[in-house]
Specification:
Length: 697
């Protein structure tokens, strides 16, 4: 794995939403200055304003301008695609690198941010207003150096909140001279966007009054101005202005109670919609379902039919991009398209009930099939690419799961989808989110079926990872009862394997290893290579102390399977398992080579669960080589990550003994003061420096 894969991962997880057409930021000098002052005086600044006024774009610009002001960085988190307030805490934790933030992500977040000087940007809070208010209040109480910038159509109402209303852009009087008209931000925005679609367009004495009249008609609303400007591809400026005048007069007569700015944006949307062909209108409405954006193949699979031929999809998408309804984003996997939130909300309103019902079913079926075809627990060559794909599609998958929960006929599909993502939830560190969907989709599916049994062992496995035995064990018992019934035999090996992990987790290693080997035999008999690999991994790590020779054989077989199938993600875990076994056999050199390579890979893809364990083992190896200061630093680096994943080496039987011995030896050799200083140095390194200084170097 190269740094390219790491960069692809980071883009997939942490990318900020782009501008409408990727063009430059125009105006807002007063608001930028006011935001600087506001964030220097208050710990919460909320940008408020109507839809389309540019709150999100302004927030991104503020984040960019102030990035160097905050020692611990600036993090932008988009909330528009999040429909469930219950997921707010784990999703923010994940964005901050606190993967696997445990059953109490709020506590982990507060602990992590308690000494951080950073700016957290929460974009589009209005649909989760109460949840965001509680969340922000708790964060600010527990993290005294944190600053939060929020965007919302309403204030959050949190104590100490400072509000910065985001007005429309300034508009000129059409009777003013050219120089005065040109100074207004609404005019500058229109001219810049117009020049991008009509090369050579510029403001001059002949068109200044017309541009000024158009900017005033659009109330200086940036989104409305941009939607109007793109029409210069087909209409001369004078005709564009006349059509807008006529359209707005009709709308004003029809809805006199609407607020002027809402009326203006609505009129612009209606007008843009009317200028689309009937097929483009249908596609606009259907694509509004995709809160996380969409690629061309998915658009064709879900949105074709009933007035949209598959063969015309490319032309229709191109037409919507040309009209600034869609934004194209280039990824390593190809182009994806997305809508700004106001445009997407408008599109949702255009779906007829019958069209929406049919679209929902196609959407849910598509994402159920996508999850099946891209399972990360499959030992295949493209594991990492599958993971990145699911990460990109996660906002859309959340929509699919919500749709399943809202329709009893789709309840089983939702349960199967959430269960099939089990290895994604583990690798992504989204344990709380995985359990959230599993718990909700289990409720309507009460029948003692194989699907329910599968969901039960998956839920148990996630709970075990979080140390939640109280919830894991009853789920697991029910799973085993169902799996032992005729017709559910295919679930039994998974139930037995999870029972083995559970037994090892509570300290009954003998029984746990026996169960893991039983599951291994069943997977072998079924010819299930994927099941064999995971049973080998668990038997190797949990058996590394009890019977290291046998564990080494399991680990070596697991590694051989991964290498034969070029399964990169699972290979890192197999290397860790084998490395721990040979460490317990006293082969420090081989253990170092295996675990160091695993750490390099898992660090690059940001798999912190595996990386944390690798750092722990590398600390033991440094201690065995009498490099006790390095051991202390590695223990400190591992400690920071153990906290981030809400875990501890003392909770894992295969880590506890060696962790305590390494700490004791380093402390005895270095003395308390030097040990503590080295430990603190390691804890403060940060992920990049750990990878470059302690592992690569």
């Amino acid at each position: 794995m190269t740094r390219v894969a790491s960069q692809a991962y980071e883009r997939s997880v942490n990318r900020a939403r782009p501008h409408l057409d990727g063009s430059s930021f125009v105006g807002r000098r007063h608001e930028l200055a006011a935001a600087r002052r506001g964030l220097s005086q208050a710990r919460l600044l909320t940008l408020t304003g109507t839809g389309g006024v540019g709150k999100s774009r302004l927030a991104l610009r503020i984040a960019e301008v102030l990035r160097d002001t905050y020692k611990d960085g600036v993090e932008v988190i988009e909330l528009a695609t999040l429909e469930a307030g219950d997921l707010l805490e784990p999703i923010v934790a994940g964005a901050l690198g606190l993967r696997e933030a445990g059953s109490d992500p709020m506590t982990v977040l507060v602990d992590h941010l308690s000494d951080k000087r950073m700016l957290l940007v929460l974009d589009n809070c209005e649909h989760l207003l109460d949840d965001c208010a509680r969340f922000v209040d708790q964060l600010l109480r527990g993290a005294p150096r944190l600053r939060i910038l929020a965007t919302s159509r309403q204030t959050l109402g949190v104590y100490g909140e400072q509000v910065l209303p985001v007005p429309s852009l300034s508009v000129p009087d059409p009777g003013h001279p050219l120089r005065r008209i040109a100074r207004h931000d609404s005019v500058r925005l229109f001219v810049e966007r117009a020049a991008s679609v009509s090369p050579g367009f510029s403001l001059d004495t002949r068109n200044a009054a017309c541009v000024a009249r158009l900017a005033r008609r659009l109330e200086g609303i940036p989104l409305a101005i941009e939607l109007a400007a793109v029409q210069l591809r087909a209409l001369p400026l004078e005709q564009l202005t006349r059509e807008l005048d006529e359209r707005f007069e009709v709308l004003a007569a029809g809805s006199p109670a609407a607020t002027p700015r809402h009326q203006t944006l609505r009129a612009t949307m209606d007008w843009s919609f009317r200028l689309c062909s009937p097929a483009e209108q249908r596609l606009w409405a259907r694509l509004s379902m995709f809160s996380g954006g969409v690629d061309l193949d998915t658009a064709e699979a879900v949105c074709s039919g009933a007035g949209i031929a598959p063969a015309e999809m490319i032309d229709l998408v191109t037409g919507l991009v040309d009209k600034s309804v869609l934004v194209g984003e280039r990824w390593e996997s190809g182009l994806r398209y997305r809508m700004l939130e106001s445009i997407r909300a408008y599109g949702c309103e255009q779906l007829t009930p019958s069209e929406e019902r049919a679209l929902r079913r196609r959407y849910v079926d598509h994402y159920r099939d996508l999850v099946d075809r891209h399972r990360i627990d499959a030992i295949v060559h493209d594991q990492l690419e599958r993971y990145l794909l699911l990460q990109r599609e996660l906002p859309n998958l959340r929509v699919a799961l919500e749709l399943c929960l809202s329709d009893p006929a789709l309840a089983l599909v939702g349960l199967e989808t959430a269960s099939a993502m089990w290895s994604f939830w583990l690798l992504a560190g989204a344990l709380t989110e995985g359990r959230y969907w599993l718990e909700r989709t289990l409720k309507p599916v009460r029948a003692a079926s194989g699907a329910r049994a599968t969901a039960l062992w998956v839920d148990s496995m996630l709970a075990l990872r979080q140390g939640d035995l109280a919830k894991a064990m009853p789920r697991l018992e029910e799973c085993r009862r169902i799996a032992q019934r005729p017709g559910n035999e295919d679930v039994l090996p998974f139930a037995i394997r999870t029972s083995g992990v559970a037994a090892c987790s509570i300290g009954d290693a003998r029984r746990g290893l026996a169960l893991l080997e039983e599951s291994l035999a069943l997977f072998r008999a079924a010819g299930d290579v994927d099941g064999v690999m995971f049973s080998l991994y668990y038997a190797a790590v949990y058996g590394s102390i009890e019977d290291p020779g046998r564990a080494a054989r399991f680990g070596a077989e697991a590694l051989a399977i991964c290498e034969a199938h070029h399964a990169q993600v699972s290979r890192g875990y197999a290397q860790l398992a084998l490395g721990m076994a040979v460490w317990n056999l006293g082969d420090y050199q081989r253990a170092d080579a295996l675990v160091r390579e695993a750490a390099e890979f898992t660090g690059e893809i940001n798999d912190r669960w595996c990386l944390t364990q690798c750092l722990e083992v590398l600390a033991w190896i440094a201690g065995a080589r009498q490099e006790h200061e390095k051991a202390a630093r590695m223990l400190g680096a591992a400690h920071a990550l153990w906290q981030a994943v809400d875990a501890s080496p003392t909770r894992l039987s295969y880590h506890a003994r060696w962790h305590e011995r390494c700490v004791e030896q380093a402390r005895d050799t270095l003395g308390d003061r030097v040990f503590a200083a080295s430990f603190r140095d390691g804890a403060s390194l940060g992920l990049e420096r750990v990878l470059t200084c302690e592992i690569d170097g």
